[in-house]
């Protein structure tokens, strides 16, 4: 099989809006000794991609940035020193390509610090790759690196993993939240989901949420969560909305609040709000995706719960419709993931 010499990719002519995305054709290099060349079949979008597009995401980025951290594809060539992978293997790259264990020395996050996955072909370090679950399509596999792994890390990789009998409150019905719902249910926990949309809450119920709260009609959702737990409070909150004060009100003494990346930190937090972290002895853990090792562990959980941990894909767009996919994500009309087929 002859290798491609060029690839079509989307890049930012300048940051400020996803309307500044432009398609270009560029050369494809051969993989180095420790790299593989992947034909990308699908890419999924994150809220982070919108923040980067707008220029609101922290950190330095290369010029003419190729967006998107999450993609899935097929290996078509391997470098001379690569023994663990072969042509034809179906893979994802980890969100941070240098985070193999629990370290990321240079924080090389795709679609941010380094060019991302919204391209037809991409060379990647061999040790950054994870095999896609056998029963997943490429579109489903593309949802895992950020949303899936972030939810898994929050619930199952800390010092106190979620367990049967726990009550978990999940905010929203986006990518991370839907995976958190599914992983919590697979672990035997009772799940409360909050959202402003009744139709989205119906989806959450179908996926296993025992309780649902519409925070538009029930603004004091923390009080409602306390009632649902007979005044004890929930064991864990997946905090994605920047609503730390009611999360503290909903949590039990000694419970855990998992703050999801830049998504869950959209607030200023005076001391009177975080005081309950002391008085209620609440554990607060910041979550920033995960490692290759955690990714493989997550895939074992998915394989063991094949029917109940299937990704929820809201809509699939063609490669040429990338801007429309970003617009759909921005509209917040989706439940689960927005995917671009490459």
TrEMBL record:
Location of the Enoyl reductase (ER) domain: 16-340
Domain of life assignment: Eukaryota
GO molecular function: oxidoreductase activity
PANTHER family, per database record: PTHR45033, ZINC-TYPE ALCOHOL DEHYDROGENASE-LIKE PROTEIN C1773.06C (PTHR45033:SF2)
Name recorded for this polypeptide: Alcohol dehydrogenase superfamily protein
Lineage of producing organism: Eukaryota, Fungi, Dikarya, Basidiomycota, Agaricomycotina
């Amino acid at each position: 099989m002859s290798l491609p010499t060029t690839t079509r990719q989307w890049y930012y002519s300048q940051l400020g809006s996803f309307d500044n995305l432009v398609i270009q054709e560029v050369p494809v290099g051969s993989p180095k000794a420790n790299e593989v060349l992947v034909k990308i079949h699908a890419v999924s979008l994150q809220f982070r991609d919108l923040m980067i597009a707008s220029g609101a995401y922290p950190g330095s980025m290369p010029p003419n940035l190729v967006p998107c951290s999450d993609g899935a594809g097929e290996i078509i060539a391997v470098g001379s020193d690569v023994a663990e992978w072969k042509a034809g293997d179906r893979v994802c790259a980890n969100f941070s390509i240098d985070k193999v264990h629990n370290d990321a020395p240079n924080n090389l996050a795709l679609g941010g610090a380094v060019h991302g996955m919204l391209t037809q072909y991409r060379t990647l370090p061999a040790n950054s790759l994870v095999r896609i679950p056998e029963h997943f399509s490429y579109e489903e596999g593309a949802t895992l690196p950020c949303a899936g792994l972030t939810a898994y890390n929050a619930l199952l990789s800390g010092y106190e993993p979620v367990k049967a009998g726990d009550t978990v409150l999940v905010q929203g019905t986006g990518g991370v939240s839907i995976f958190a719902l599914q992983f919590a249910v697979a672990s035997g926990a009772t799940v409360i989901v909050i959202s402003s949309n009744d139709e989205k809450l119906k989806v959450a119920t179908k996926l296993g949420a025992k309780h649902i709260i519409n925070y538009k009609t029930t603004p004091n959702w923390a009080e409602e969560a306390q009632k649902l737990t007979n005044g004890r409070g929930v064991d864990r909150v997946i905090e994605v909305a920047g609503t730390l004060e009611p999360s503290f009100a909903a949590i039990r003494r000694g419970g855990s609040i998992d703050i999801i990346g830049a998504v869950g930190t959209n607030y200023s937090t005076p001391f009177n709000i975080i005081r309950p972290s002391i008085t209620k002895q609440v554990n607060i853990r910041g979550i920033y995706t995960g490692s290759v090792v955690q990714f493989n562990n997550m895939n074992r959980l998915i394989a063991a719960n094949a029917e109940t941990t299937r990704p929820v894909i809201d809509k699939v767009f063609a490669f040429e419709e990338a801007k429309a996919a970003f617009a759909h994500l921005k509209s917040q009309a989706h439940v689960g993931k927005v995917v671009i087929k490459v």
